[in-house]
């Protein structure tokens, strides 16, 4: 029986992650791109692809189905020995919405890390934390947790290790598409930082900001 889109997304994310672990610290971006591009061409030859590591193909704008992928999210972290906050993103957009997706964090244990206190924990970029995040943290008596990949940050919220992921300053569709699908599937809130909906497969794939959080925090953070 042929794989469903969801099964394919999950398998490709996992297999790409395993490949990246094997070749680390080599050129992970190129290696992962070649593997994913070949797999999608073999298994979904009629679908368009939007990838961080490939030239943009304008035909995706008229396609019904577009795979939005980041073969290695967190290249900086991947290159640093011992860091685990990098990920693989594989998502499928179909006729206006994300319909499948998977995030693999192959360098991390799947067991949630124990939390030392119950203060709200907000994961933010380790290199570009939003300027207003500190003000939000002070207002909520929350703790800011710097972290690398958007996928790793999202999975921290999915696993309950953090309560929210807040980003501003810009990112691309491939940075958030798979994390957003996974977050929504887990019952989390996902939107722009001000609560507006996220829209994918746009002519300009730039997204200004992102909020992923427990549903009860959406009204406070958005």
Automatic annotation (TrEMBL):
<protein>
    <submittedName>
        <fullName>3'(2'),5'-bisphosphate nucleotidase CysQ</fullName>
        <ecNumber>3.1.3.7</ecNumber>
    </submittedName>
</protein>
<keyword id="KW-0378">Hydrolase</keyword>
<dbReference type="GO" id="GO:0008441">
    <property type="term" value="F:3'(2'),5'-bisphosphate nucleotidase activity"/>
</dbReference>
<dbReference type="InterPro" id="IPR050725">
    <property type="entry name" value="CysQ/Inositol_MonoPase"/>
</dbReference>
<dbReference type="Pfam" id="PF00459">
    <property type="entry name" value="Inositol_P"/>
</dbReference>
<dbReference type="InterPro" id="IPR000760">
    <property type="entry name" value="Inositol_monophosphatase-like"/>
</dbReference>
């Amino acid at each position: 029986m042929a794989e469903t889109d969801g099964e394919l997304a999950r398998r490709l994310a996992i297999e790409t992650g395993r490949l990246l672990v094997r070749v680390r610290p080599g050129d992970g971006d190129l290696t992962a791109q070649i593997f994913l591009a070949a797999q999608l061409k073999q298994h979904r030859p009629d679908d368009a692809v939007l990838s961080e590591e490939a030239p943009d193909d304008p035909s995706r704008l008229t396609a019904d189905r577009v795979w939005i992928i980041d073969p290695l999210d967190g290249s900086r972290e991947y290159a640093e020995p011992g860091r685990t906050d990098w990920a693989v993103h594989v998502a499928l957009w179909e006729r206006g919405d994300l319909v499948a997706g998977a995030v693999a964090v192959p360098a991390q244990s799947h067991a949630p890390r124990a939390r030392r206190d119950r203060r709200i924990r907000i994961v933010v970029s380790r290199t570009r934390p939003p300027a207003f995040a500190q003000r939000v943290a002070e207002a909520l008596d929350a703790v800011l947790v710097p972290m690398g990949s958007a996928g790793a940050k999202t999975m921290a919220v999915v696993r309950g290790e953090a309560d929210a992921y807040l980003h501003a300053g810009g990112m691309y569709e491939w940075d958030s598409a798979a994390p957003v699908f996974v977050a929504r599937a887990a019952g989390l809130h996902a939107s722009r930082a001000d609560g507006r909906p996220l829209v994918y497969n746009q002519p300009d794939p730039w997204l200004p900001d992102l909020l992923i959080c427990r549903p009860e925090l959406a009204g406070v953070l958005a």
